[in-house]
Design a protein that fits this description.
The protein is of the alpha+beta class and 175 residues long. 32% of the residues lie in helices and 37% in strands.
């Protein structure tokens, strides 16, 4: 489960691909899995709008795990994932730009957002552009058919209202 914060407060976010920078990694000890012991921790991404996404990450060599996807996104081809796990140094990932994919996941305990994939910037920007085209086509159809959904309404509100915090009467008057 990812923790999403903006200005230090938990906030909501639209799922999908987001360009970001890795701004932190906090180790959280080790975990035993399948007779092996792996490092684990929390990686923090900062989106272009300043929103922070903090996600649990197991430093494991399996290609379905987030760590493998991270290394694939920031390293050149030909890396050895076992060596990367053994010699993992969080300082090597801080400041790197990537694209993360956020998805809603439903479990018995409820629904939450998770970082499910990490892409290099070039590949990620292509995916973002493709997703934006699909979204525009979907919204165009919805407008034509006079249909609405909360996702559609939020997207239209975000186009019209700048994301600005109102903290005083003066801010409200200038809004």
């Amino acid at each position: 489960m990812a923790t999403i914060k903006r200005d230090g407060r938990i906030t909501e976010i639209e799922v999908g691909c987001k360009k970001c920078r890795i701004v932190g990694y906090q180790s959280n000890g080790r975990k035993a899995i399948k007779r092996n012991v792996f490092k684990q921790g929390y990686i923090t991404f900062e989106l272009e709008d300043g929103t922070e996404v903090k996600q649990y990450m197991l430093i494991a060599p399996w290609n379905t795990y987030l760590f493998y996807k991270l290394i694939k996104a920031i390293k050149a081809e030909g890396f050895n994932i076992f060596n990367e796990c053994e010699a993992f140094d969080e300082n090597e990932i801080i400041g790197k730009e990537v694209v993360i994919e956020l998805e809603n996941e439903v479990k018995d305990s409820g629904e939450y957002i998770n970082v499910t994939n990490i892409y290099n910037v070039e590949e990620g920007e292509i995916i973002i552009a493709y997703d934006n085209k699909l979204k525009e086509k979907k919204y165009s159809e919805m407008e034509k058919n006079k249909e609405m959904s909360m996702e559609y309404i939020r997207s239209k509100v975000n186009e019209v209202i700048p994301q600005q915090e109102i903290t005083s009467e003066e801010d409200l008057m200038n809004f």
